[in-house]
Specification:
4 copies of one chain form a homotetramer.
Chain A (H helix, E strand, L loop, with lengths): L6 H25 L6 H7 L4 H7 L3 H25 L8 H17 L2 H13 L1 H23 L10 H20 L7 H16 L2 H4 L3
The structure holds a DNA duplex (21 and 21 nucleotides).
DNA sequence: AATGAATGAGAATTCATTCAT
DNA sequence: AATGAATGAATTCTCATTCAT
């Protein structure tokens, strides 16, 4: 309880750790996991390589932390977007738009880190596993959202529907943001929205442009 | 001006080159681009490291060749599948199934190489570019297929529709084959098929289970 | 932006760097630039190959440092020798001897490194350039020396004279020290001295044996 | 004696060999011994690498052959130049100019190969030895030339004089042709000529500009 | 806690040379 | 004699990680 306690140092410690995480996210986004080395990260964070390794066992562990934090931010965004409005008050088209927007928003967080996240998802089992878990959560959330308007839906297998919809949106987002699709963004998003709306909702709602 | 790398002029030479390509595909599938080194590939191919470098400037160039060959095989499969039957004689549900099957078949070629191909698509601009070009071709093919039954379709913007459908299928395939989706494969495929059918076809056809 | 190679900040670091420089000079002298590899230099310096490359971008850069340091030592020797005595008090023959001796002394520093230095001067543009710059300095110094006794000289174009004299001495030194000239060293040095003396000085001084 | 004899093939053989020698000289001049590899030489000569090695045991042996041939050409040039005129009929200044010109001419043969020849002279004992032997011959020739006007000379130790003169000329030639001396070529050559003339010839002849 | 010097395994790549055809 | 495919030792250089201070 004396002022000699190391609490201020712990504060500084947290800051150091955060600065490494921030530097890592920046570097991984810009140059990828394999294109970035630990010294670069440390110096970008304004920290010695020795400190780097006292905070993180190795580069991979650091990536996992950055990745998890990023995914948590994404989840939070999605939840916030989807819960922003009372969706049962909205029309089918609007709901679909809201779903798409919520997933788009998640990817706007940092398109470049998103790209590298996909690299690692496909490349590394541990990353893949965490990614899968997150997808499960997003799916559950989407199922929850849909359940709120279940009586207006055509589809009955909400879980499968949510999975398929999420996949369609995710890949479309990538094709726009990462693979610069040759078509105009609006044409694709319109098509995507229409596909999802007609799939999910009963004809009465699906009819509307 | 002799080229940097050897141009096969003898039968033996062609065999060596091919064995390197085959070994590379195998190793890249199993251990990824970064997890495989040139010596391993050479010895897997039963060839000296010197030969490796006399046929391929470096590992990246080798990857590009393997990748391009793989993508060409995929394209061929897709075309063959989609042109197997006279599609204008088929019902909407069957057409959709055929489209899904054709894209699934492409990924059955080698799911593991497919995975690594995605890694590199997201990681490397040159790979991304080639991938984008192939997607364009697949899209064009799909648009062609749809045009054959245009009068039965609801959608009018065929290109955007084709893009969205291809995206939905591709990501769903990945979620099944690579990310071991928690749901049973059939539930997902059924949902996917229904989504696409209702999106593309007029109600008369879409009605059918 | 951290520099490519380590800038010594600790005492230990400076010692390591110096030990690499010393080992390099030794190895280059003994086996030449192309006959020595970085591993040998590192182990001769009692240092890991990793340290080698953290101090020097590559072998060539290391050579340049060794070379520049060597040339600086040479310059210092020459200046010291030529300024050792008040030359205006000396006779022409003695002055010439002093000049020859000063250049000989420079080459006594390390005849073997001298040899390799010549190899690289002829082989590499960057080395050549630095060598040329040093020659310019030596020439300027020699012109300065001559100017002190200008009224006793025959030659009027001091710069050209200095250049020619320096060339004559340098090649003669090499023919003695590197190419083991078939004649006895003294006969050659005597001839050289006489040539220079008669060239530079008015007859009154040149007469003297 | 029948037309089936391999004589034409021997002719072709000689041509192949010569084309390799020519290609080697070209490549060594342009990129140096270490900067050129055997495949390059072979392909420049329009010959397979297999043939290359059936004509020359290795790259070093090839260099020696090219080097020796070059030096022989140089010697021939020097002899021709020095014997072009009846030198006993010439004035001292003209004789000196003729000597300088003869040595300059030798270096004009191929300044770039000359440069690489120096590299190898300093770097390789075998090359050095051959070079020394050639210098001896040039020296003997120069002594012979001087002896023809011995009664007009000041110097008595002709061998030492010849050595020193040859050295002075050689280094000066290099400083002009290889190390781009900062002074104008004529000023240096004039100084060189004057130095040699005053050294070699009695005052009566040396007086003349 | 922090620093940065040191490590060395390992990856990529080259090239002189051999040898089967 | 000619060819060019094949070899693999040798070299350069990188980078994740450790450890003495």
């Amino acid at each position: 309880m004396s002022p000699e306690t190391r609490i201020p140092q712990q504060q500084r410690s947290i800051e150091t750790r955060d600065s490494i995480l921030a530097a890592a996210r920046e570097m991984f986004s810009a140059k990828g996991f394999h294109g970035t080395n630990s010294k670069e990260i440390a110096s970008q964070a304004g920290v010695s390589i020795g400190s780097f390794y006292s905070y993180f066992k190795n580069k991979k562990v650091l990536f996992m932390e950055v990745f998890k934090a990023y995914k948590q931010e994404q989840i939070i965004r999605i939840l916030r977007e989807q819960n922003r409005q009372r969706i049962e008050t909205l029309g089918g088209a609007t709901i679909v738009r809201a779903i798409i927007e919520s997933l788009l928003a998640a990817h706007d967080l940092s398109p470049e880190f998103d790209r590298e996240a996909m690299v690692m998802c496909y490349a590394d089992p541990e990353v893949k596993e965490y990614h899968t878990e997150i997808e499960r959560q997003i799916n559950a959330q989407l199922v929850g959202t849909l359940r709120q308007v279940e009586d207006r839906l055509r589809v009955t297998d909400l879980e499968a529907a949510a999975a398929v919809v999420a996949n369609a949106v995710e890949m479309t987002v990538h094709s726009i943001k990462i693979f610069d699709a040759p078509l105009h963004r609006d044409r694709i998003i319109d098509a995507l929205a229409e596909m999802i709306r007609r799939f999910l909702f009963k004809d009465s709602e699906a009819m509307t442009g």
